């Protein structure tokens, strides 16, 4: 029985690691990754050669994979990243509520059907910042802090 559980878990991981996109492979965040509000979150990927001259967006989502809730576009406001980079450090991470989140990455302005999605990972925060587009039903406890994106090397 224990072997069956391990085999099922391994199969689920293999299926989850297959992205909807053949243009990208996301390596991090994944599975055991934990992002903490106020710290740095790292996204690492590889992109197909046809996207090497493109700029990419990185989005944070939560909820289930078939009906995800958009949380934020880390690359908004002129922070697009060349797709040929392989790493982005996002800092400081906003204080979103603790829970399971995932990343999607794709070419700027492209259809999200062509984006790649990470697996779920743990996000630790107090929830003082709401996802984009949501408003507090009670008095807000804080403003949305700016998140800086620093790029990795090609």
UniProtKB/TrEMBL annotation:
Residues 1-20 form the signal peptide. Residues 132-147 have a biased composition (Low complexity). The gene is PARPA_05415.1 scaffold 18190. This is Yeast cell wall synthesis Kre9/Knh1-like N-terminal domain-containing protein. Residues 29-122 form the Yeast cell wall synthesis Kre9/Knh1-like N-terminal domain. InterPro entries: Kre9/Knh1-like_N (IPR018466). Residues 132-154 are annotated as: Disordered. Transmembrane segments: none annotated. Coiled coil: none annotated. Keywords: Signal.
């Amino acid at each position: 029985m224990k072997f069956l559980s391990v085999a099922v878990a391994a199969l689920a991981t293999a299926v989850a690691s297959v992205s909807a996109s053949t243009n990208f492979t996301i390596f991090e965040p994944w599975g055991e990754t934990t992002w903490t509000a106020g710290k740095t979150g790292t996204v690492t990927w590889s992109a197909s050669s046809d996207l090497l001259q493109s700029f990419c967006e990185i989005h944070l989502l939560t909820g289930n994979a078939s009906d995800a809730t958009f949380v934020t576009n880390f690359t908004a406001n002129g922070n697009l990243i060349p797709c040929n980079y392989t790493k982005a450090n996002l800092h400081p991470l906003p204080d979103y509520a603790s829970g399971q989140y995932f990343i999607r990455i794709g070419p700027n302005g492209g259809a999200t059907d062509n984006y790649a999605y990470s697996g779920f990972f743990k996000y630790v925060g107090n929830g003082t910042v709401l996802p984009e587009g949501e408003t507090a039903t009670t008095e807000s406890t804080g403003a949305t802090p700016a998140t800086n994106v620093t790029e990795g090397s090609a």
